[in-house]
Amino acid sequence: MEAIEERNQQLEIDDKKYIWHPFTQMQDYVKEESLIIESGDGCILTDIHGNEYIDGVSSLWTNVHGHRKKAIDSAIKKQLDKIAHSTLLGLSNVPAIRYAKKIVEITPKDLTRVFYSDSGSTAVEIALKIAFQYQQQAQDGNPEKKKFISLYNSYHGDTIGSVSVGGIDLFHSMYKHLLFESIKAESPYCYRCAFGKSYPGCKLECLSGLEEIMSTHANEVTAMVIEPLVQGASGMLLQPPGYLKKVRELCDKYNIFMIADEVAVGFGKTGKMFACEHEDVTPDIMALAKGISGGYLSLAATLATEKIYKGFLGKYEEFKTFFHGHTYTGNPLACAAAIANLEIFEEEKVLNKLQAKIEHFKQRLQSFTFLDNVGDVRQCGIMAGIEIVADKDTKEPFPPGKRIGQRVMKKARKRGLIIRPLGDVIVLMPPLSISIDEIDRLCDITYESIQSAKKQE
Which of 8, 67, 54 minimizes the C-alpha distance to 34? Predict the structure, then answer.
């Protein structure tokens, strides 16, 4: 027992001494009590001291079927007995081929080609480069089309290209001198509508500005990048019904590619396998990551239409090749996990079973609207955002120094729930495998934690 305690103390020391944590103010982190996860089972995470927590954000929106899912564990072990990695540059491997076929069969029609990478950021970066290069060299391309349209409040990753099309100043403004220019359109933040209107009376006025941008810049824009249905990192901002469909129509009208960033919303989180399915939309390019391997291993995929793919075909000396690649592209272990992930969806009828959980989640979230400092509750499928405000009538936010979201997070941890807020928006996004009882516990703890954080004022 003494040896275990010594080990734990050393881990806590070494964590703060050696690791630089992402999106974390380390000056604060080193002063706080460490939470070091050692194991997981289903929707429960266990720390080095044996404390258990509900995984309320599916390990940063990645875990789909729960931790230590036997079918995925077995698939990885089986593949490990064959080979862990082999390059995809000029060669191929069995799991990469099998997964590419399976994902093409279930994604929106006309997406026929799969380019592998290793994260959501790189999947989007690849999408941008594909769209750009197509215009430069394809027979029907237009070399003047070099720019991209994206939405305010958007988040598409952390690489330079993906940050360039991002729209969250807190994350992106620091790097403005490194970025290429992109054109921003108003996002449909209905709770804080930029036009002072409300849906459906607004008649989607936010789209009028987007169409004006497209009509003005059509000859210089190659693609629009959009998170379908939900802008995740900005606080679970929901697009009103019909918005996504109209964006697709506008892209067609002005001959602009549509890039769907389904990194956060893909693989069942919205209630369908892909968010684009809700409005029967097929993008020209789709970026996938996070839940792609069930939350097990780093993998991403950028899918494109056959038309786009053919724009890169030519004689060797024409240099139309897509000169992009990652060392672990199409990693066999990750692809084996991804295949198992899809097989679980099929065999266990995950999406069918999920509908009752989504409805129960919706009912439980209704009670949050009665809390004094909850301004808005947004839900799409198993994804939810609870926006906390200082004044419910005026929608005035708390000053950043109050760190209300962080307070709620800490209160929740003490009650056995791991969540990670986005500012003062409390995000709930558990694995799809969460039980009804666990949903109740998740909601109870979140409710109590919001109340407790407010009393601390």
Answer: 8
